[in-house]
Prior knowledge:
The complex is a heterodimer. By secondary structure, chain A is α+β, with helices and mostly antiparallel strands. Chain A contains 6 helices and 5 strands; from the N terminus they run ββαβββααααα. Chain A has a 5-stranded mixed β-sheet with strand order 2-1-5-3-4. In chain A, helix 3 crosses helix 6. By secondary structure, chain B is α+β, with helices and mostly antiparallel strands. Chain B has 13 helices and 11 strands. Chain B has helices at residues 12-21, 34-39, 75-80, 82-87, 89-96, 101-106, 109-114, 120-123, 165-171, 190-193, 269-273, 279-286, 298-314; strands at residues 5-8, 25-28, 47-50, 59-61, 67-70, 175-179, 185-189, 212-218, 225-231, 242-248, 254-259. The termini of chain B are far apart. The interface between A and B is large, with 56 and 49 residues.
Amino acid sequence: MTVGNFGVVTRRTVLGASAAACATSAIPRAQAATPAKGDDAMVPVALRINGKDHHLTLDPRTTLLDTLREHLRLTGTKKGCDHGQCGACTVIVEGRRINSCLTLAVMHDGEEVTTIEGLGSPEKLHPMQKAFVVHDGYQCGYCTPGQICSAVAVLDEIEAGIPSHVTHDLNNVAFSDEEVRERMSGNICRCAAYSNIIAAIRDVAGEDKA
Amino acid sequence: MKTFTYERAESPAQAAAAALSRPGARFIAGGTNLLDLMKLQIETPAHLIDVNRLELDKIEATNEGGLRIGALVRNTDLAADKRVRRDYAVLSRALLAGASGQLRNKATTAGNLLQRTRCPYFYDTTKPCNKRKPGTGCAAMKGISRNLAIMGTSDACIATHPSDMAVAMRLLDATVDTVAPNGTKRSIPIADFHRLPGDRPEVESALAPGELILSVTLPKPIGGTHIYRKVRDRASYAFALVSVAAVFTPDKGGRFAFGGLAPKPWRVDAADAAAAQGAKAVAEAALSGARTTRDNAFKKDLTARTLASIFAEARA
C-alpha cells in the first residue's frame, strides 16, 4: 500500500463561505510514495501554518497539536485534556475550527493551519485578541488561545448562516449572546471568565452598542 | 498510542479490500472518536486507512425525491444544508444538539453512526467490559449506571449508543449504503444497521469485515412538525440522558425515535401507532419491556415527561 499523492480535494468547497478566517492557497502535499510497512515507518507531511510552508517527517501517531507544539515550537496552542473535551487546542484548519488534539497531522497533509500565532502578534493584535485584553476575557490565560481561535471561527460561522442548537429559526441565523454561549461550549475556562469572553466576542461582532 | 501503519485510500473499493486484507486495520475519517479511544488504548488498530480524500462528501438529490448524504459529509455541513434544514429539520436539530462546534466540523456522517458508547466502564480499562474485552463481564450493571440503557439490553451489556444524529436518521427511515471488499454494494435499512448486544456486545453493526459506508440515504420528505428534544445534565456539549426525535403530522399521527435509552436508536411501531392517543400512550408503548437499574429507572419518567412536553409544543 502506498501513501499516495492526491490531486483533488473537494471537501473544503462545501463550506467555502465560512472559510474567511484564512485564505486557502494550495501547498504541494508531501510526495510520499514510501510504503508504510514497519512499525517505525515515518511519514512525510507538508503543512502551511500561518502562511509558512513546513515539510516534516513524522511518526503517523503525531497529532496536529503535538506537531505544532513539539515539532514546530508553536506553543501558543495549548494541550488541556488531549481528548477533545476542553477546547484549549482549538486551531483553524482550512477555515474551520477543530480540536488539534483529535486529529493526526498526516491527515492534513497539504492543508492550511492558522494558530493563535497566525491571528496576530503582540505588536499587531487581531481584533479578537485586543477585545479579550480590553474586556479581561481571561484569568490564568491557559484556555485563551483556544478561546480566541474558536471565537474568530464562531463569528465566521454565524456570518455564513450556520445554525446552532439555540437558533430559533434554522433559516435565520443572527448574532446573540445566547448563540455565543452555545457555540463556545466546546471551550472550557476553569477560571470561569465566561461573561467577559462573551463581552469580548460581542464587541468584535459589533453588537456592543446596545 | 500504540504504533500503527498508515495509508491513504485511493478508492472506496480499494479501501474496503485493504481493510479486509490488513490484520487489525481500521478506517479513519474525522477521527474524533477513534483517536480518543486509541490514546486510551481501548482501540489499538495496527493499520489506519485514511478515507478522508475519497469523494464521499456530497449531498445529492435522489431520483426518489430524497437525499443521498456522502459518508464524509461533516456534521456541520449536514446540519447547515438548506435542503436538510427545510425538509428534514429534525436531522439538523439532532446534529446541532450533539458535541461541540469543533467536533461537528470534523465528525462525519458515517463516523457518527459508528461511534462507540460512552459507558464509563467501556472507557475504564481497569474494569471488566464485555464490549471492550469480550467475556470479561459487565461492571456497569452493579456500578454507576445512571446514564446507561433501559431498553434492548442483555445480561452482557447495558451500554447506550451515544449518537443524536442516528436517532433522527432512524426516525426518517434512512438507509446505509455500503461497498464490500469484493466490490458488492448494498443498502441496509437503519433499523437493521445497529445491533442489540445479546451475548456479543462487541459486534455493534451489521457491517461485514472491511465493508465501507459510502452514503446514508434519506427517503423523500414526510412533512409535518419536526422536533428533537435532548435532555441532559448541562445545556450544551453533553450526551443525552434521554432524547426524543419526533415528526407530528396534521392528522394527529406521529413517529418517534429515542436516544439515551438503548444500544441503538430506539423506535417501536406500537409507539408510532399510539400517536393519536397522546404522550402517555406513546411512552407506554415505547418503554414496554424496560429493564432498569436503581440508578437509571428515572429514565422511564423522564421519557414520558419529555414526550408530554413535545406533544404540548407540537399541538399548541
